What we know:
Helices cover about 45% and strands about 15% of the residues. It has helices spanning about 10-20, 35-40, 50-60, 70-75, 100-105, 125-140, 160-165, 175-185, 200-230, 235-245, 265-275, 285-305, 335-345, 355-365, 375, 395-405, 420-425; strands at about 1-5, 25-30, 65, 80, 115-120, 145-150, 170, 195-200, 315-320, 350, 370, 380-385, 410, 425-430. The longest helix has about 30 residues, at about 200-230.
Amino acid sequence: MRIAMIGTGYVGLVSGACFSDFGHVVACIDKDPGKIRELQKGKLPIFEPGLDAIVASNVAAGRLSFTTEPAAAVRAADAVFLAVGTPSRRGDGFADLSYVYDAANEIAPEIEGFTVIAIKSTVPVGTNDEVDAIVRKLRPDADFSVVSNPEFLREGAAIEDFKHPDRVIVGTDDERARRIMRELYRPLFINETPMLFTGRRSAELIKYASNAFLATKITFINEMADLCEKCGADVQEVARGMGLDRRIAAKFLHAGPGFGGSCFPKDIAALAAIGERYDVATKIVSTVMAVNDARKRAMVTKVVSACGGSLQGKTIAVLGLTFKPNTDDMREAPSLVIVPSLEAQGARVRAYDPHGMAEARKLMPQLETTSDPYACIEGADAMLILTEWDQFRALDLDRVKKTLRSPVVIDLRNIYRPAELAAKGLNYISVGRG
């Protein structure tokens, strides 16, 4: 089948590449000519493990292309996917839908024959109806169906999530649209992937509700970590015991410095705004946002305490800047709160991240960065682990001890065993281990 993918951001590029790897012919469309030129040269705007190989192989096979001109691709498409950004709107936290509506206005004149318009962007309840109305007003003669098809991609594991998802959600009551969506995702049937058809508004809300629930799990275990520190329990043991209950499950029960990224903060704010729009109190959602914001500031207090109560004149070596490993995404990363706060306390901050330093310097232009972890910790008064990159899990601890000025390791991701670091003569501070 033929697909036009509007938007070459994270969702659009991963989805377009994976659909082409399924055997479909995909044209990825973006208004940014510079981005399209780079993609045509094989240079990707994001870091996602394995994506460059999939893009290269499908471009070579003639199934994947990139363009700034939507007309021909939309006219030929069986399905047009909208995968444009929906950032938080200033002031009220509601999703900014201007890019979605602009895309709808742009594709409407080009529709030929029955076409599915599938919205992959994360959008508030009722957005699919609005897109339907926009296209219908511009093209009352057009034969099309708008469906909600939210994405559930984890940065750093997006290809696996696309090709082996827990479920595919499609919001539509149009049987022709159902047939096309089934065909697009047909390669997943061999893995017996559940494909759930719902109403459009239910599909829109499933995305927000899912992210809010996962964020709530993270926030809950962070609060339990605080309790563990006070009462002498181990949060990892608590999480393991909870996670063995199949009703709870183990994923997202990892204590740390709070969640960040492109989805959770934005989507939780949008869900709270949706609740206000419909006059429904979303107290749990609002509390999760507030507790997570406070969590990042509390981690600064932990660092200050570990360094003897003052950071004045001290050097803190920060390992990891991105909000999670295997991505270069800095959006809402805890480091964006923690690093400036450490500097405000008088610390000199030196940082290293395997893939995030270029993005980090855009947001923190004065940030001092190094070429590797050991250069980062050279002569530092403390080593602070903010992101659990694999390469940080196997540091030479003897070398760490010799390289640091003071043998202080603050691990906000609990990637080491306390006894192991104590045996090396390191003063080890982690999260939720009393």
